[in-house]
């Protein structure tokens, strides 16, 4: 059997195991194949297949109730047709600024059915940032939650605007998505000649967010890669707490459609309400960013004990570093169900750590899943030996088309630089040592903040920590640590320095320590280090 044939055999086996490839009867199977043959594997196809196979199954459960797959197909057809009547269509850019609710899902699928380019705006963007992105991306339409009206107004006066969510009992200031659906034709819109792109904005933790362009998947290979390691199964319930506008939350939505998953959505993350939703809907999967796990574990033990989370078979985490100490605390509470995916907006996934990986090697990013290549290269482009640090490059079945400003990431021999550096251990597990551009040179020694941060959060009385480099007249740069004590613990700078000195090299000891009540983070949970640098 050829290498390519062997790979496709593995893909087929994964899809069969997950339940994606199964159909409820031959007639529905024939209809499903006909849709795939006619339209290819797109978001719109995933929605249509769900409606064919399981029209009465819940697709979305949010604060407004239940939307079945049959209703999802009809509503998004109607929305796409109504948007077309408003002058929006194939090739147009439509910005979406929504929290986690059905309006986000409706807007996304309608864009796919129109062949429009969907641009996802971070719900924590400022008005100037929104205006800048809308102008740069050349958008023609905007679908937004009314709470953001003041933020989007300065940069969207010339756009066709529609309200996805407004407070119950109030009248929206502009035409709502619900009104468009009610007025629209629910028959399938004409198939676009070209598929619309998905534009996910980078986190912008160290600079201006960029628009990362990506074609929607044209096959189920990307799903097979993730499912080869994370044991998600068809027709189960997913508590999707991670922001949908972020690449991790959006990826789980993409994955859940062919699985005919039921998505449980809350507009705002609340740790106790999330536990309540898991119990109420018997969710088998929880999708989070690491800080959400941290917030859940900060709840009093009696509160955690109040909720039954035994239905969980997978806690899928990504979006920011997962400290080894936090991973162990999560598994001690919820069981060995934690899977952590390391990737980026540009390259999608790189590696996935299983519960066994996280127990055996706390802090690991795991191993490459099916069909994924990961190489560690030095500054000359040569692969480094196992155990040595190198720049992380990766390739998989998701194609990054570059940034919308025309720039791109460094690509060498078909693999793309993630922007991080790391090393493999003797068992082939990847460890991410830090951002390539975050390296601190102090007194001639190279320090990556991640190592110091991971050590600090392993301290019994430290909840979270971040380390940055600041200018120093004698050493070029010095390390500055920001520490959040756990449960009001009383710590001082001398204790923190002594703890680091006892575990790491002398030059990795922070010169200064600042205590905070919490670290500044964006909506996807990443620490905003530029704000910490400003504190100094």
Protein architecture, described:
The chain is of the alpha/beta class. Among the domains are: 42-196, 3-Layer(aba) Sandwich (Rossmann fold), CATH 3.40.50; 440-535, ANL, C-terminal domain (GMP Synthetase, Chain A, domain 3, 2-Layer Sandwich). It contains 18 helices and 25 strands. The strands form five sheets. The protein has an eight-stranded mixed sheet, with helices on both faces. The longest helix is centred in the first third of the chain and has 17 residues, at 69-85.
Which terms summarize this structure?
8-stranded mixed β-sheet; 536 residues; Rossmann fold; 25 strands; GMP Synthetase, Chain A, domain 3; single chain; alpha/beta; 24% strand
| Structural class assignment | alpha/beta
Distance between the termini: 61 Å
Task: Outline the low-pLDDT stretches.
Answer: none
Percentage of residues in strands: 15-25%
Q: Helicity, in percent? A: 25-40%
For the sheet with most strands, the description reads: 8 strands, mixed
CATH architecture of the domain at 42-196: 3-Layer(aba) Sandwich
Strand order of the largest sheet: 2-1-10-9-11-12-13-14
CA-based gyration radius: 23 Å
Number of helices: 18
């Amino acid at each position: 059997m050829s290498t390519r044939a062997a790979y496709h055999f593995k893909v087929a086996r994964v899809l069969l195991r997950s339940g994606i490839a199964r159909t409820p009867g031959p007639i529905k199977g024939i209809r499903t194949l006909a849709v795939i043959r006619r339209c290819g594997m797109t978001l719109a196809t995933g929605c249509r297949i769900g409606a064919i196979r399981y029209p009465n199954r819940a697709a979305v459960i949010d604060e407004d109730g239940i939307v079945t797959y049959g209703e999802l197909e009809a509503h998004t057809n109607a929305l796409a047709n109504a948007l077309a009547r408003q002058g929006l269509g194939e090739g147009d850019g439509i910005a979406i600024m929504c929290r986690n609710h059905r309006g986000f899902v409706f807007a996304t699928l309608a864009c796919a059915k129109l062949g429009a380019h969907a641009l996802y705006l971070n719900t924590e963007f400022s008005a100037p940032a929104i205006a800048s992105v809308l102008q740069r991306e050349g958008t023609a339409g905007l679908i937004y939650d009314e709470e953001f009206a003041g933020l989007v107004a300065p940069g969207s006066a010339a756009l066709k605007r529609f309200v996805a969510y407004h407070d119950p009992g109030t009248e929206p200031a502009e035409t709502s998505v619900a009104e468009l659906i009610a007025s629209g034709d629910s028959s399938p819109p004409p198939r676009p000649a070209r598929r619309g792109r998905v534009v996910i904005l980078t986190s912008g933790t160290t600079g201006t967010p960029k628009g990362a362009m990506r074609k929607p998947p044209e096959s189920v290979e990307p799903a097979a890669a993730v499912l080869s390691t994370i044991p998600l199964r068809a027709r189960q319930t997913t508590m999707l707490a991670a922001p949908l506008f972020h690449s991790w939350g959006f990826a789980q939505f993409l994955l859940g459609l062919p699985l005919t998953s039921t998505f449980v959505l809350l507009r705002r993350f609340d740790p106790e309400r999330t536990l309540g939703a898991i119990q109420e809907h018997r969710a088998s999967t929880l999708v989070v960013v690491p800080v959400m796990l941290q917030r859940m574990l900060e709840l009093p033990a009696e509160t955690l004990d109040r909720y039954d989370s035994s239905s969980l078979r997978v806690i899928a985490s990504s979006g920011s570093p997962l400290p080894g100490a936090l991973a162990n605390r999560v598994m001690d509470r919820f069981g060995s169900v934690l899977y952590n995916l390391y990737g980026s907006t540009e390259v999608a996934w790189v590696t996935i750590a299983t519960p066994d990986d996280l127990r055996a090697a706390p802090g690991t990013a795991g191993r490459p899943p099916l069909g994924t290549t990961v190489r560690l290269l030095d500054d000359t482009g040569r692969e480094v030996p196992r155990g040595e640090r190198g720049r992380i490059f990766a390739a998989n079945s998701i194609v990054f088309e570059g940034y919308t400003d025309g720039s791109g990431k460094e690509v060498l021999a078909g693999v793309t630089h993630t922007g991080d550096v790391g090393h493999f251990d003797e068992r082939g597990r990847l460890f991410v040592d830090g951002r390539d551009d975050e390296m601190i040179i102090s007194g001639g020694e190279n320090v990556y903040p991640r190592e110091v941060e991971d050590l600090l959060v392993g301290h019994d009385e430290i909840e979270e920590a971040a380390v940055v480099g600041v200018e120093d007249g004698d050493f070029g740069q010095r390390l500055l640590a920001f520490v959040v004590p756990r449960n009001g613990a009383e710590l001082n700078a001398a204790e923190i320095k002594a703890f680091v000195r006892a575990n790491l090299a002398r030059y990795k000891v922070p010169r200064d320590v600042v205590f905070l009540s919490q670290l500044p983070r964006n909506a996807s949970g990443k620490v905003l280090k530029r704000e910490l640098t400003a504190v100094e």
